Recover the amino acids of this structure.
């Protein structure tokens, strides 16, 4: 497992604010930095959003824990 520069546990965040909070945290990463994201649902929507808006070469998305109660991913901005 890679080390993360930022840890974001989104579980206490109200659902209506989660997507913006996650994407803002990603955007604030320096190139080459990694965010350890902890959520209570599969963050696949973030993967697809990044893929559609940034392209596959712009990020790495690695599952560390894949549910069923907690999902953890390492997202690296490339």
């Amino acid at each position: 497992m890679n080390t993360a520069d930022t840890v974001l546990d989104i579980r206490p965040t109200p659902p209506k604010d989660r997507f913006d909070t996650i994407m803002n945290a990603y955007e604030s990463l320096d190139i080459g930095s990694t965010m350890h994201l902890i959520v209570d649902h599969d963050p696949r929507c973030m993967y697809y959003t990044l893929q559609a808006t940034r392209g596959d070469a712009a990020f790495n998305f690695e599952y560390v824990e894949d549910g069923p109660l907690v999902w953890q991913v390492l997202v690296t901005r490339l």
The chain has one domain: 6-77. DSSP finds two helices and four strands in the chain. Strands lie at 6-9, 34-39, 59-66, 71-77.
